[in-house]
Amino acid sequence: MITAEPSGPAQEQQIVSDDDVVRVRQLVRAAAIATKLSLVDQTKLVTAASELARNTLVHGGGGHARVEPVTNGFRNGLRLVFTDQGPGIEDVDRAFADGYSTGGGLGLGLSGARRLMDEFELVTTIGKGTCVAAVKWER
Amino acid sequence: MDRVPILSLRDVLLVSIQVDLEDQLAVRLQEDLAERIVATGAHGVIIDITALDIVDSFVGRTLATIASVSRVLDADTVVVGMRPAVAITLVELGLPLHGIRTALNVDLGLDMLQQTRLSAGADRETDVVEASPDVSAPQPVPR
Fold this sequence. Notes:
The complex is a heterodimer.
Chain A: E1 5-6, E2 11-15, H1 18-34, H2 39-58, E3 63-71, E4 76-84, H3 92-95, H4 109-116, E5 119-125, E6 129-137
Antiparallel strand pairs in A: 1-3, 2-3, 3-4, 4-6, 5-6
Chain B: E1 6-9, E2 12-16, H1 23-40, E3 44-48, H2 57-72, E4 76-80, H3 84-93, E5 101-103, H4 106-129
Parallel strand pairs in B: 2-3, 3-4, 4-5
Antiparallel strand pairs in B: 1-2
Helix pairs in contact in B: 1-2
């Protein structure tokens, strides 16, 4: 369970094409700069966003991203939420294993993104879709 | 659709990625490069990623594929100009960049290609001399 309260307006981006993955990256980068994350943390966050957005497109058949500044009372951060109405993930443990891929990729999308973020939550329902929420806190 | 320009300098192809690399553009670059290597007979490829503020698994995999394809076409690939934050992120992401050689800038990348070319030439000569012995052949009797 991620404890993070919204501290500013959220921004949304549809993900239906490759171009949208780039748009998500740009949106997250701008928000990370506004949240005053360090350069390394910005880079990790944008990279994780790129992986998750591509998952939403390739595995979820498209969906949308929400980018929202948050606080836990001590620190500021940025929450990313990716939602799709795709087939869902049958074996979540395997989906998180490095090198496991059903989309012809390297299988680093989920596991890599989880390593790059501070908090990570995945909810999936077969036949209904998948929602990934992740937070990066400022140091 | 956009294309990443490929410059031909002597026997090296130079690519400087200056745009946010969208997946299709990365795939297209991979195909364009393979064609240009064959068309120009280039022996080296330098990919400058100074302007890239992230390298995700897709771009990383594309770079690795470019390096492998180039190798098959008798050209070596060096990726140059990776930002420090990108290097840290790539390692944490867990991306295996096997087969990708890196240099800090284009200049050092050119040096690296030249070195490889020289030592490859030397290896080829020694290969002839030290061809692996046929195990089924009778072993020479030591004197």
